[in-house]
Amino acid sequence: MQNFNLKATKDDSKERLDKFLVDALGRKYSRTFVQKLIEGKNILVNNEPTSAHHRLSSGEEVRVKIPDPVKLKLEAEEMSLRVVYEDRDVIVINKPAGLSVHPSGKNLRHTLVNGLLAHCRDLSGIGGVLRPGIVHRLDKDTTGLLVVAKNDAAHINLSNQFKKRKVKRIYIALARGVVQLDNGIVDLPLKRHVRDVTKMAVSFVGDDKKKAVTLYKVIKRFKQFTELELSLQTGRTHQIRVHMAYIGHPLLGDRVYGAAKGMPRQALHAKTLGFFHPVMRKFLEFNSEIPDDMRELIERGII
Prior knowledge:
This protein is an alpha+beta fold. It has three domains: 2-66, RNA-binding S4 domain (Structural Genomics Hypothetical 15.5 Kd Protein In mrcA-pckA Intergenic Region, Chain A), CATH 3.10.290.10; 73-163, Pseudouridine synthase (2-Layer Sandwich); 165-283 and 298-303, 2-Layer Sandwich (Pseudouridine synthase). Helix content is 18%, strand content 28%. It has six helices and 15 strands. The chain has helices at residues 17-24, 31-39, 112-119, 152-163, 239-246, 292-300; strands spanning 2-7, 43-45, 48-49, 61-66, 83-86, 90-95, 143-149, 168-176, 183-187, 190-192, 200-202, 213-221, 225-232, 268-276, 283-287. Strands 5, 6, 7, 8, 9, 12, 13, 14 and 15 form a nine-stranded mixed beta sheet that branches. Strands 1-4-2-3 form a four-stranded antiparallel beta sheet. Strand 12 (213-221) and strand 13 form a beta hairpin. Helix 1 packs across helix 2 (31-39).
């Protein structure tokens, strides 16, 4: 257990509590981690629990308790991984539908991370005990390409590329209805849903909203759905799914955001992934074929 006693100064006046703590603790901890500490009442302001968006006043005392990390041991599991590329620094995987990228909560088995631990023992530790090597993720039922870091230097380099939007990501999706414009940009901020923390939502209010930009292009229109190519300028959780649902064209099979019919999963595939190799500095680009369930629906042309 670590304990810190902090005091807000005049310069900190009106600063959000979570942002103040991230800076005050030397950016050693993420804002999300700090917010969880606040929710767990491990952070008190003037000896009282409060919220992450509490605005500090000069002189307020902030007490911080950081519990010892829970020791978890992930099991390596042999599984048939679709390895597209691998060297000593990175591994690119073509993920199938139904496979979670990393463990969460009480679910510590049968994820991509478990399979990677059996495949290569030298994953980056930066992602923490539950997410070793994971630089970015795909939803459980989204298929396609993702890159995993095999050492900390590669992890830092790739994370910076994602942050600076140097990574090329192109998705193929099947959206409900006929999209009228041949191409378009959806520029709508996202944040956690106010009533369901497992969902995201478009929101124009609050300090916790984040910029999210999705570009789309129509590949082919059908009577009941549209095949789209999408690229991301930002990489928010559920970004494509939320943006398309908001403009009236949720992805087929997306039970969370409004188009449950058409497929047993959301019709989304990460087709293209390009990044600069963290050591060789050479730009690498990989492509993946559309999975059979989406391809068969396109060939039929009907839901």
